[in-house]
């Protein structure tokens, strides 16, 4: 009986060789010399193979990072930076498949179907990191807005993957720069700023209205 890995490998080889999917599950399994029931034991469709492959890219990156002793010592910013640097390294191993998988629905502001399984995994991962940053005081806890931080990090995910697909620089140096600049700007916005101090001062004044009256303000 074929394994899930054998079916996935055969499928990826087919699409990269032919630049298209097999016409049907029937024709695919016939060439693979397995039955349709064997295919459906592991995958519901060709879409599910691609979705699961992206999930595996993501979980492999997260698991590898969290197994490192130094991981717990990283700041929230450094954890997200480490994820993206490591994720690109994982994607490099199957760059041809990544480009094929996304070429018809580039990951920009909307989430393409092939990444639908990745989004909840990544958002849960990034939300845990963001909560750590909020608890430690590294990140500013802003009413309503702090709940949106994970959405901003997901937009960075979509941007970085999209950028990497088109990157033709040596060893993808421009992608490394895009990661550094994008994540640092995003986390700068997550941290306290003079605007936060001004807002807090405004709240203080509104709570102390009588004192303001006595002072003639």
Helix/strand/pairing category: mainly alpha
Radius of gyration: 23 Å
> How do the SSEs run, as a string of H and E?
HHHHHHHHHHH
Report the strand count. 0
Please tell me the overall pLDDT.
Answer: 89
Domain count, please report it. Answer: 2
CATH 2nd-level architecture of the largest domain: Orthogonal Bundle
Our estimate of the beta-strand percent is under 5%
Name the shape in a single word.
elongated
**Which percent range fits the helix content?**
55-70%
Number of DSSP helical runs? 11
Biggest beta sheet summary: none
- CATH fold group of the largest domain: Tetracycline Repressor, domain 2
CATH class of the largest domain: Mainly Alpha
List segments where confidence is low: pLDDT < 50 over at least 5 consecutive residues: none
Distance between the termini: 82 Å
SSE layout and pairings?
Blueprint: H1 4-18, H2 25-32, H3 36-42, H4 46-66, H5 76-92, H6 95-102, H7 118-136, H8 149-166, H9 173-190, H10 194-207, H11 209-214
Helix pairs in contact: 4-5, 4-7, 5-7, 5-9, 7-8, 8-9
Key attributes of the depicted protein:
217 residues, mainly alpha, Tetracycline Repressor, domain 2, 11 helices, 70% helix
Provide structural commentary.
There is one protein chain. 70% of the residues lie in helices and 0% in strands. By secondary structure, the chain is mostly helical. The protein folds into 2 domains: 1-43; 45-202, Tetracycline Repressor, domain 2, CATH 1.10.357. The protein starts with a helix and ends with a helix. The model has no long low-confidence stretch (mean pLDDT 89).
């Amino acid at each position: 009986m074929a394994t899930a890995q054998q079916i996935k490998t055969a499928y990826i080889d087919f699409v990269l060789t032919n630049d298209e999917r097999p016409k049907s599950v029937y024709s695919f399994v016939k060439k693979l010399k397995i039955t349709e029931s064997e295919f459906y034991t592991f995958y519901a469709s060709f879409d599910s193979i691609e979705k699961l492959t992206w999930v595996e890219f993501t979980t492999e990156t997260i698991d590898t990072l969290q197994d490192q002793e130094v991981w717990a010592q990283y700041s929230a910013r450094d954890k997200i930076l480490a994820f993206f640097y490591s994720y690109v390294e994982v994607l490099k191993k199957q760059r041809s498949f990544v480009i094929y998988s996304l070429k018809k629905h580039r990951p920009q502001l909307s989430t393409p179907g092939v990444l639908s399984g990745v989004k909840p995994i990544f958002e849960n991962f990034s939300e845990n990191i963001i909560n750590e940053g909020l608890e430690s005081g590294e990140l500013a806890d802003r009413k309503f807005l702090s709940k949106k931080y994970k959405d901003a990090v997901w937009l960075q995910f979509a941007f970085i993957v999209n950028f990497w697909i088109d990157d033709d620089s040596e060893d993808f140096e421009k992608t490394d720069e895009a990661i550094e600049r994008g994540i640092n700007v995003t986390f700068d916005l997550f941290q306290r700023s003079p605007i936060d101090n001004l807002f807090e001062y405004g709240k203080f004044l509104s709570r102390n209205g009588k004192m303001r009256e006595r002072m003639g303000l």
